[in-house]
Amino acid sequence: MLRFFAPAIFSFVVMLLGLGFDYLFPQDWFQGWIRFGWYLAAYLPVGFPVLKEAWGSILKGDIFSEFLLMGIATVGAFAIGEYPEGVAVMLFYSVGEVFQAMAVTRAKTNIKTLLDQRPDEVTILEGNSTKTIKASSAKIGDIIQLKAGEKLGLDGELLSEKASFNTSALTGESKPDSKQKGAVVLAGMVNLNMVSQVKVTTAYTDSKLSRILELVQNATAQKAPTELFIRKFAKIYTPIVVFLAIGICFLPFLIVDNYEFSDWLYRALIFLVISCPCGLVISIPLGYFGGIGAASKNGILFKGSNFLDSIAEIKNVVMDKTGTMTEGVFNVQEVHLEPDFENSRILDFANALESKSSHPIATAIKNHVGEIDSNIVLENVEEISGHGLRAQVEGKELLVGNFKLMDRYSIPHSIDPSNIVYTVVAIAYGGKFAGFLTIADSIKDDAQHTIAQLKSIGVGITMLSGDKSNVVKFVADKLGIPNSFGDLLPEDKVEKVKEIKAQKGTVAFIGDGVNDAPVVAISDVGIAMGGLGSDATIETADVVIQDDNPSKIPMAISIGKKTKQIVWQNIGFAFGIKVLVLVLGALGMATMWAAVFADVGVALLAILNAIRIQRMKFD
User: Fold this and answer.
1) H/E element, 453
2) Of 177, 320, 467, 547, which is the active-site residue?
3) Which of 301, 10, 65 lies closest to 171 in space, CA to CA?
């Protein structure tokens, strides 16, 4: 850190000695060229890099940069003999630039350190021996041996019977997460209590953590409208300021008596220093980056600063049910089979067909029926979106899905599904209704608190689901959600969201399944449950909640609102101070020292305000 401040420290010491020679213990020899050379020596360590940047900007076509403003102002101060003030302006400007650079670097480093928890090496099993290799060299299918306290380097499937992991690198939650054999485990998770084995299922560069890092690193490329406006404004504002300064210097010659060139040049130089937009140009993007960092720290990923602005304006939150407000962990409650099928293999057939689906219901059926019979041969397997699955087994048609699937294929039955308050899986074989299973899902622990928080900030709430209407209404009523709709296909969800947007304003949609990707895409802000959500939804979403906890939804809105508030505080504060001191400077009532505060002081205060969001708690 000392090397960054070394030029400023040297300049500050030399300037203080010069001021001492000028005012505290005047020296006869400290005059003329000696005095000029002394202050020039104080000026060059901090001034030369800025003048070099100004020249570089001019060569690139960016003539009216902040570096040019500071260069003109300080060289002008030397031209009229105000050496100490010229040094002071450049000194404090340079110190401000160092603090700005450090703040940006620290914000980026904090985020990367927070997220990049992957080890460089992993231990893999080869027969009965182990071998340590680069994590990036591990291949899909390799078996990683993970000791207690070690971090997992790649995504995989747990082969051990059970293990406990710290998932804070991915979710922001320090609570241990117990996993059973066959569970998905992700890069960055820390094995807590016993040696475990994990089969690699994803390449190093394609792991969830790699993609999270890429999302955060690319987030600053998506600029918020406020940030884009300020940058465009600065490009127009700076040349106007230069020409106004020229006017302040020369126009009074035509208007006032006793025109003193040096007096009006001094006022023009003060005007230039005050008007430098560097504080705004750096503090606003830093404010947004701080918001992205604060969200990342809490397990929420914004794919761009523009989405921080968007989520702050959300009027309605629309959410999926399964995996979003419920655990997505189903258990079979009841089995009702028709007499002709009670002693048949129909449940084995259903288990085999459901294994072709990624829906959590498949796991529930497998847990109830048992391991899949490898002797069952499925042919012409087809997934019918919003309905279920169809295949040929032993020459007959097998249907497994909801009762809409039964109706679609004209399967006669006497069941009224509206009277069943659970999710129902109906089965038909050979054109006959075979029976049904009831499956229940549990509501997430923080779901009710989430709804209460959303209501408290005045956000409208709607639940949309492909599940049965009575099941959806049961869950919605339990959570206190006023509007709910079930039996929806993916295209129906899209239409419902369009209706809500047209009638009630901006919409954020939260989902996790692959069938949620279309509706996530058309929302004003699409939010994906990213812990174990579908890749398609995560790719489409604007915001990703890493741990699947719905309580992060109001937290994301709060971070967006706070970020926007801080950005506008900076804009109002900077413009207010600058306009005041600009007027005083033009009237000759402000000194160069006031100009230094209006430029560098305001910039530093704005930066400190911008980075404080990373220290805030949003629990």
Assistant:
1) helix 447-456
2) 320
3) 301
State whether residue 139 is helix, strand or coil. Answer: coil
Rg for the chain (alpha carbons), in Å?
33
Tokens standing for residue 460: 């409208």
Close Cβ partners of 164 (under 8 Å, ≥ 6 residues apart): 176, 177, 178, 179, 191, 192, 193
Do the bridges between strand 507-511 and strand 396-401 make them parallel or antiparallel, or are there none, so unpaired?
Answer: unpaired
String of b and e for 354-383 (b: at least 16 CB within 10 Å)?
Answer: beebebbbbbbbbebbeeeeeebebeeeeb
Contact in structure between 293 and 219 (CB atoms under 8 Å) = no
**Residue for token pair 């910039």:** 603
CA distances, 565 to each of 216, 256, 527, 606 (Å):
22, 45, 22, 12
Which whole number is the average pLDDT over 84-106? 73
DSSP state for residue 341 in the 8-state scheme: G
In the chain, what is the straight-line distance between the N-terminal and C-terminal CA atoms, in Å? Answer: 34
User: From CA 366, how far away is CA 400, in angstroms rounded?
Assistant: 14
Residue-wise pLDDT for 104-159, tens only, equals: 566 556 555 545 556 778 888 887 788 888 888 888 999 988 888 888 888 889 99
Put simply, whether the predicted model's pTM sits higher than 0.90 gets the answer no
H/E stretch holding 592: helix 592-596
Longest alpha-carbon distance in the chain = 117
Question: Residue 152: helix, strand or coil by DSSP?
Answer: coil
Reported as a single tens digit per residue, the pLDDT across 456-501 is: 999 999 998 877 788 888 889 989 999 999 888 778 888 898 999 9
Closest to 188 (Cα-Cα) out of 299, 105, 106, 295? 299
Contact assessment for residue 68 and residue 277, using Cβ atoms and an 8 Å cutoff: no
Is 407 known to be catalytic?
no
Which helix (H) or strand (E) covers residue 278, if one does? helix 278-297
Higher pLDDT, 339 or 536: 339
CB-based contact 347:435 (threshold 8 Å): no
